[in-house]
Design a protein that fits this description.
Helices cover about 45% and strands about 15% of the residues. The protein is of the alpha+beta class. It has 3 domains: about 10-120, Butyryl-Coa Dehydrogenase, subunit A, domain 1; about 125-235, Butyryl-CoA Dehydrogenase, subunit A, domain 2; about 245-375, Butyryl-CoA Dehydrogenase, subunit A, domain 3 (Up-down Bundle). The strands form 2 sheets. The chain has a 4-stranded mixed beta sheet with strand order 1-4-5-8, with helices on one face. The longest helix has 29 residues, at about 270-300. The chain starts with 9 loop residues before the first helix and ends with a helix. The chain binds flavin-adenine dinucleotide.
């Protein structure tokens, strides 16, 4: 495991300033910040951001993207998250589906989906988890059987974020029966249209009553043969490499940052105790940011820092939660979602939603296992 020290170049710092200027102009001064990458679905904002070239940054120009570095993408994501911008519509497709299509997709699939993703207009969900398969993804039971011209898919996916708003999802399913001693074999990924006949999307309300994720039932859904993503039977290898990509970015440690910002805005005169809280949080954020930036540099160098990425998510998501608890203690305030104080309203939202951060994208225990195995090998 290695985290090489790195700093931003003057050109990268200039990009940051540009993004800040854009956000100051685009977001109304009184906008309610979204918490994290899944915070709010706003297609208009996604398209406007894309027009500036800040969606699909890592997609090559021949597919409608901008061929920028992972570090440039990191800088833009960091600013968007810190400002609480509504990036929920495009973020998962941009972060996860686009690299998967570039690595494993056919030329036809890339030409069909990547330009729309880069334009901030085509949105994807992730169809991995099932009622009895979360951490143990290899045990998925959704199955696809061959039919004329493609596949028939039957099964149930759960916790499918934004399936009610998105267009497609990449479904991990079994395309051949499980064999004794090889449960990772026989799994494949299919790109499924969320509006196809036989697909039923039902809400699973969040703790605060909001609608973010869903159960998606697939009842003999026809999927054309050209919608197999990657090689048949390589689904396990593909999703694990995809997960490595999604674990290390600023979206894993900045989700609750807007709460801190509002606290400081509403409390201009810090006590010594407040300053100590702020100092501890800032020091941790700075250290995690270095680790996360270092992973982005290493991606740009063509490396595959899966173990480092798992570690960043483990420390990053714990930080997101600890920040909420630290501010709750420091502010000594009652939780109130309908409060006239933006800080109190955001704090209440964060208390209800942040427990999920150490589950989504791989639980803390699973990430520790990945990191420990990486250290041992
Ligand atoms: C906000 C949110 C959004 C999500 N969005 C999506 C989505 O869009 N698409 C999707 O497919 N999934 C999504 N998920 C599901 C998420 O990936 C799973 O919740 C996660 O993988 C854990 O699976 P599980 O909930 O079945 O828990 P389980 O796997 O049952 O785990 C329960 C507990 O046991 C522990 N545990 C399990 N196995 C081990 C082990 N081997 N060693 C040590 N401890 C272990 C876990 O760490 C956890 O604490 C989302 C989840 C959340 C919270």
């Amino acid at each position: 495991m290695q985290f090489a020290p790195t700093v931003l170049t003057p050109a990268e710092e200039a990009l940051r300033a540009e993004v800040r200027e854009f956000l100051a102009a685009e977001l109304p001064a009184d906008h309610r910040p979204a918490l994290g990458f899944a915070g709010r679905h706003d297609p208009h904002f996604s398209r406007t951001l894309a027009e500036r070239g800040w969606v699909g940054m890592a997609i090559p120009p021949e597919y409608g993207g901008h061929g920028r570095s992972a570090v440039d993408r990191f800088i833009v994501a960091e600013e968007l998250l810190a400002a609480g911008a509504p990036i929920g519509a495009h973020f998962v497709a941009d972060r996860q589906t686009a690299p998967a299509l570039l690595h494993f997709g056919t030329e036809e699939q890339r030409r069909r989906f990547l330009p729309g993703i880069a334009a901030g207009e085509v949105y994807f969900s992730l169809g991995m988890s099932e009622p009895d398969s979360g951490s143990d993804l290899a045990s998925v039971r959704t199955r696809a059987t061959r039919t004329d011209g493609g596949w028939t898919v039957t099964g149930t996916k759960v916790w499918t974020s934004e399936a009610h708003n998105n267009h497609f999802f990449a479904v991990l399913c079994r395309t051949s029966p499980m064999e004794e001693g090889s449960k990772h074999a026989g799994l494949s990924q299919l790109i499924v249209d969320l509006h196809a006949p036989g697909v039923t999307v039902s809400p699973i309300p969040y703790l605060d009553g909001s609608h973010h994720f869903n159960e998606v039932a697939l009842e003999e859904v026809f999927v054309p043969g050209d919608m197999v993503l990657g090689e048949l039977g390589s689904g396990w290898r593909q999703v694990t490499s995809e997960l490595a990509y999604e674990r290390s970015g600023p979206d894993r440690w900045l989700s609750t940052f807007p709460v801190l910002r509002e606290w400081l805005r509403e409390r201009p005169d810090l006590t010594d105790a407040d300053a100590a809280v702020l100092g501890r949080l800032a020091a941790r954020a700075r250290a995690i940011r270095h680790l996360s930036l270092s992973v982005a540099r290493s991606l740009d160098a063509g490396e595959a820092p899966a173990v480092e990425a798992a570690l960043v998510k483990e420390v990053g998501t714990r930080f997101e939660q600890d920040l909420v608890e630290a501010l709750r203690d420091a502010a000594e305030t009652e939780l109130d979602q309908g409060s006239g104080s933006l800080f109190r309203a955001l704090l209440a939202e964060a208390v209800l939603t942040s427990p999920s951060y150490t589950l989504r994208g791989g639980t803390t225990e699973i990430l520790r296992s990945v990191a420990a195995k990486g250290l041992a090998s």
